[in-house]
Structure formats: C-alpha cells, structure tokens
Amino acid sequence: MTSPAAAKPAACPRCRSTTIGVLAHSPVAGVWTVFGCSTCLYAWRSTEPEENTNPDKYPAPFRLRVEDIANFATIPPVPPRRSS
Amino acid sequence: MRAYKDLREFLTVLEGEHQLLRITDQVLPEPDMAAAACALTQIGEESPAIYFDNIKGFVSARVAMNVHGSWSNHALALGMDKDAAMKDQFFEFVRRFELFPGQLEHVETAPWQEVVVDKDVNLYEILPLFRLNRGDGGYFIDKPCVVSRDPDDWNNDDVENVGVYRLQVKGRNRLGIQTVPQHDIAVHMRHAEERGEDLPIAIALGNEPIITLMGATPLLYTQLEYKMAAVMQGAPYRVVKTAKGLDVPWGSEYVLEGRILYGVREPEGPFGEFPGYYSGCHKYPVIEIDRVSHRKDPVYDAVYVGRPWTEIDYLQAMTTSAPIFLQLKQTFPEIVAVNALYTHGLVVVVSTKIRYGGFAKYVGLRVLTTTHGLGYAKIVIVVDEDVDPFDLKQVMWAMSVKVNPAGDIVTIPNLAENLLDPACSPGGIVTKMIIDATTPVAPDKRGDYGEELDKPQGTDQWRLKLAGLLKEMHK
User: Fold this and answer.
1) Are the Cβ atoms of A23 and B122 closer than 8 angstroms?
2) pLDDT of B22-68, one tens digit each?
3) How does pLDDT run across B356-384, given as a tens digit for each residue?
4) Which pLDDT does position A1 carry in this prediction?
5) Maximum distance among all alpha carbons in chain B?
6) A61 and B263 in contact by Cβ < 8 A?
7) What is the CATH number of domain B317-437?
8) CA-closest candidate to residue B128, choices B253, B277, B267
9) pTM of the model
10) What is the DSSP letter of A55?
11) Cis geometry, peptide bond prior to residue B31 (ω within 30 degrees of 0)
12) What is the pLDDT of residues B429-467, one digit of tens each?
C-alpha cells in the first residue's frame, strides 16, 4: 500500500501516461488523494492496494496501450442530425 | 404490501428483522467495503444488508450495501413476510404488476433539497465512492435511478424513464454512462442527438427499495416506472420535479442534475458486470453534472457486482421473470410460470401446459421475441406444467429424461444480444437455443414414455403434519 495522501505519481498505473492530475483530497485532511489519468481516464486512490496504484504491480490483463484507445468501439454511434 | 417513504425507513425495517449488519470498525474504502459485500453474498440466501459509517478519510459518510441482496430482503422490499418462498414472491410480483398503472403524487419539496452544491461540484468528495473490483477502470455509481424524458415528446409522462445504468465517475463533475441500445434511455439520447442537443437527466441515489427494482425491470417504452412502483407499493408514488421538469423520488438521499453531452464519446470501463466478467473498454456517452442536492447526512447505496450470485442477481430476478411471463401469457394462456432468475435471464425456464405436439417450441420462440428476449434470453428451457421452474432439481429431472437432442434442440444463429454477454461473436450477436424438455404428445410421437411416478395417497396431508412436527422440534 502506498503512503496516504501521497505525492503525485510519475505514471498512470494502467496506461503509463504521465498525464496525471489530482481529482480530490480526502475530506479528512491528509488521509488519501484521488488521482486521475486524463489519457485513459483511470482513477485511483493513494491508499488502495498496490495492484491499483503501482504501474509495475497493475494486473497485466487490465493494462492499456495508449494507441489502443482510439480503437475502442463507439457505442452508440452519434446519429446524423436531422435536417431542419 | 408496504410503501417505504425512503431508504432510511427500509433500513430500519431490515434492522428490526435482523437483516441489517452495522460495521462500526473503521474501514478503508478499498478493499474493505467491496470485500465485505462480496463475502456477504457467499454466506447464503438470507444474508443481511451491511451498513458502514466509519470510512477512513470521509467525514460522516454512510454507505449501505446488499440492501436487496437476499430473498429475505427482497420479500421485505415487497412488504411480504421475510420467509416468503421464491415462487410466492414471483406470483405476488406478477399480481401487482397486472394492476399497472398506479398514480403519481406530485409534491413541491423533498428532504433531498436540504443541501445544494451548484458550484465547483466534486463528486469524489461529495459521494463516498470506492472501487468494487480490481480491474474496474475507476469508481462507479452502480445503483442509480437515472431519469430522462423524450426530447421529441417532452411532456408525455408515460415515456419518461427511470433506469439503472452504470455510471463511471471520470472527473469531478463528469460521468460516463452505459446506454445499452435495448434500453429506453438510448431512445431519448438518440432523439436528443438527432436534434443536436444535450439530454437533461437527473440521477437519484439512495432510494427506497421499490423504485430501484422498477428501474431494473424491462418495462415497455410507454410504461413509466413510477406508475409501476405505485402498484408495487400499494400507494401513489411521491415525486418532486426538478427545474428541468424531470420527476425525482421524494425520498432520494442524493439527486445529481446534469446533461448527457451531445456528440461526445469517451473511454469507459472496464467494469465487473452481471455476467461475472469484466465488460472491457468502449467509448461511451458522457454526462456533465451541474448541481448536486442531498439530505443532511445522506446514505449512499451501492451494489456489489461479482461472479453470480451477488446482490445484482436479486435486483434482476423477479423484475425480469414477471414481464416475460405476462408478455408470454398474452400470446399463450397455457403458460404457468417463468424463471428468468439466472444472470439477468440469459437462461429462461418456462413451465407450460401443452396444447398439442410441437407446442413447446413455439413457446420457446415467443420468449425470444419478448422485450427482454430480444437482448438477453439466449437459452430457453421449456418444461411441463407440473415441473416447478424455480426448483432446479425438477428442471434437471425434466432435462434428464424428456430431452432427446435429436428432436428437442432448436438453434437460431446470429440473433441480436446484449453486448455484455461474453459468448457473443461478434459482439452483440449470438446463436440462441431452445430446449424442449416437455413430454412429447401426439402427434409428436417420440420416445417411450409410460406412466410417470406420482405420490402415495395422503402424502400432502403428511407433509403438513411433518412440517408442524419439525417446527415444534426446533422450538
């Protein structure tokens, strides 16, 4: 388990992008921080088990490659606008 | 029958019936809460709800889980005796369902208006969010009642919709929403996008137990969930209008108001889903939240979703079986009962009287064309009228002796199916199967069926007598 209210991690545990921001601090100060990756939209709390916070421990089946995101199926597709 | 005014009242009843467990020790949001809820589902069919009010890092957060997560809790939600048998719950659910429609009671104010946040909304701080399964792509709101109207028919209450759709919290005021094409909100959203508009929505969290069951019921497009909730609780359903004109339960703990953004799709998932598998990632529509209202000291209600059975299977049990039963019965009055309890009705067991040889296969085909059948029912097992479809021992007996695969299996390739069914190939398409486990009757003269065994005279009287003696013995 990483330390509570940790400093901003270097990389997203899921896609390893460095586009990480702080989404929230615990309402009780200094207990935990929620981080989010603006590339793959993964979010995690600093006090979670390492499998959710550490890129090296993140389970292989759930890792993402940034280049795969563009290929996710779009559901539902955006319908054409009606002609007015 | 009972009309609970809010979640709090139902939790009080559960506690009085020894069906609510309070966890007073401090817990971590992860992994403690999901682990406890998962463990509860392994305890048995009478497992209680669980209530956390000491969650590390939150100030006075309250979270209830497994609220619907046993046949006992399900019975109490319906205002029945907590020991009511599954089959009795089915027939009572059906009886009330047929009373549709009930009435709405419109009121001006509600307790959820006590606290309003309309600037700098941060859902991670307002809601006690937590991860359910390790591979989930974030924190999900997974027991919401999402309310929307049809932009092409805005003032028509009957096409207003209340649905339970998973919501991934992806930013301080940003959610992803899964809108399965078979669901009514997908129609509202398509109409909004064809008009080039955002779709206003309200998200009600922490609700009394009936509306959540209704939100999980595959009603017809023109059947409003509140009007079904009214007949289920035996009293008009009390709602309050938002500024946009959306009706929200009076008793909700939190109400989030926002918009599904026109033309936007973003990565969403994975999420551990009801089939017992992660859903994978897709680009799904996006909601922006403009305003959050909540009661003082609100109670957040979440459902653990894992490998079946978990709480979600109770939410999707009678609510799936009853509409299939009623739609089937309109076509075939011979239908006796429908069990669609398993994995949201991917498997459906129907018991029916047999009109003539070959009839059972038509019953199976009709299941596939019910509203729910279009997107879920994949394997239909048809059994005789004297086989209780809720008793799997009886169903397996029928499968064992009444099925000859040479003539009793019908498969239909390439039918539409819910994307979440991992057997689909390609996604959204699957082969469906009907298993005719009824006894062949003329002119379908197959097999060598002699006389079935029955019961010795007096068995029914003895059953009552023995049940009484056993009750005495356990006193």
Assistant:
1) yes
2) 999 999 999 999 999 999 988 877 899 999 999 999 998 999 999 99
3) 999 999 999 999 999 889 889 999 999 99
4) 46
5) 75
6) no
7) 3.40.1670.10
8) B253
9) 0.93
10) T
11) yes
12) 999 999 999 999 999 999 999 999 999 999 999 999 999
A52 reaches B (C-beta below 8 A): yes
3-state secondary structure at position A11: coil
pLDDT range class, residue B182, cuts 50, 70, 90: confident
Contact at CB, B137 and A28, closer than 8 angstroms: no
More confident residue, B221 or B411: B411
Read off the tokens for B210: 């009936």
CA angle A27, B141, B104 (to 5 degrees): 115
Taking Cα atoms as reference points, which of B184, B130, B114 lies closest to residue B301?
B130
Domains of chain B, residue spans? 7-313, 317-437
Q: Tell me which chain A residues have a C-beta less than 8 angstroms from the C-beta of B122.
A: 23-24
Give the pLDDT band (50/70/90) at residue A43: very high
Selection from B186, B203, B75 nearest residue B144 by Cα: B203
Homologous superfamily (CATH) for B7-313: Electron Transport, Fmn-binding Protein; Chain A (2.30.110.10)
Contact B28 A61 (CB under 8 A): no
Q: Where are the alpha helices (DSSP H) in A1-84?
A: 66-69
**In the A/B pair of chains, how many CB contacts fall below 8 A?**
112
Measured CA to CA, the distance from residue A14 to residue B131 in angstroms comes to: 15
Q: Is there a contact between B29 and A34 if contact means CB atoms under 8 Å apart?
A: no
ipTM: 0.95
User: Comparing B7-313 with B317-437, is the CATH topology the same?
Assistant: no
B282: chain A residues, CB-CB within 8 Å: 72-75
Nearest CB to B171: which of A36, A44, A82?
A36
Q: Is there a contact between A52 and B134 if contact means CB atoms under 8 Å apart?
A: yes
List the structure tokens of B175.
Answer: 């959610």
Please identify among residues 62-81 of chain A the ones whose CB lies closer than 8 Å to any CB of chain B.
62, 64, 69, 72-76, 78-81
> Is A34 in the B-facing interface, judged by CB distances under 8 Å?
yes
Q: Which of A36, A41, A79 sits opposite B193 (nearest CB)?
A: A79
Domains of chain A by residue range: 1-67
Listed residue (A40, A47, A48, A45) closest to A19, CA to CA: A40
Tokens 């085909």 locate to B365
How confident is the model over B216-254, as pLDDT tens digits?
A: 998 889 999 999 999 999 999 999 999 999 999 999 999
Distance CA B103, CA A32 (A): 46
CB-closest option in B125, B419, B427 to A24: B125
